[in-house]
Specification:
216 residues, Rossmann fold, 6 strands
């Protein structure tokens, strides 16, 4: 069987005008996971990312210089757009500025999005789920034995919940657990596709590595 190793991007710029930029910590996390893969002699046969800068820059900082294939189905859902739609353009300041409140509110908002409980979002949950599935098929339709993908937490949560046959709610429950540059591994062959490892961060399992841990 072949492996699809999907890595969440490094820490981005939460609370800044442009979230789609890796922080210095995000670059350090990316270097650490790249170094681990080389230490394990895990050399990818194929590289795939979404089109977001934080995803492509994670791959670059991991030390892989070849240009990846790009599939926009691997892009994160637009959480800012969802919050704006739910609050009709008037997102409370505490939701924007307080990390704990932000993620608690985002969880509730995604559940409502899944249920079509509000209008105005640029993408439905059904469309998001369909494009993630299209990206999964794209990445695994290959003769490559080791496929390295860099994506985002919502995509990984969605792909994992579908592989497990879980309810749609599990997509967000998994999403919120995923650490920056965590590794989630799937095995595939033909139409078979199964989860092998979720949210692994062995590159953080040392005293110095533990200082790199982040979730957003």
């Amino acid at each position: 069987m072949a492996e699809l190793l999907i890595i969440r991007h490094g820490q981005a710029s939460f609370g800044q005008d442009n979230y789609d930029v890796l922080s210095e910590l995000g670059h350090a996390q990316s270097r650490a996971v790249g170094a681990l893969l080389r230490e394990l002699d895990w050399v990818p046969d194929r590289l795939v990312t979404g089109s977001l800068e934080r995803q492509k820059d994670t791959l670059s900082s991991m030390g892989f210089s070849q240009a990846p294939e790009v599939h926009e189905g691997l892009n994160e859902y637009d959480f800012g757009d969802l919050l704006n739609a739910r609050f009709k353009g008037d997102v409370p300041d505490i939701v924007k500025g307080d990390r704990k409140t932000h993620f608690r509110t985002l969880r509730e908002t995604v559940f409502d999005w899944q249920d079509d409980a509000f209008d105005g979002a640029s993408e439905t949950y059904g469309a998001f789920a369909a494009r993630v599935e299209a990206a999964r098929k794209f990445a695994s339709d290959t003769d490559a034995k080791r496929v390295l993908v860099v994506s985002s937490g919502g995509v990984i949560g969605q792909m994992t919940s579908v592989a497990l046959g879980a309810s749609k709610r599990e997509m967000m429950n998994l999403n919120l657990q995923i650490k920056n540059t965590a590794m989630t591994r799937f095995m595939f062959s033909g139409k078979a596709f199964s989860l092998h490892e979720f949210n692994a961060t062995p590159h953080f399992m040392t005293p110095s590595g533990a200082q790199l841990l982040s979730y957003s």
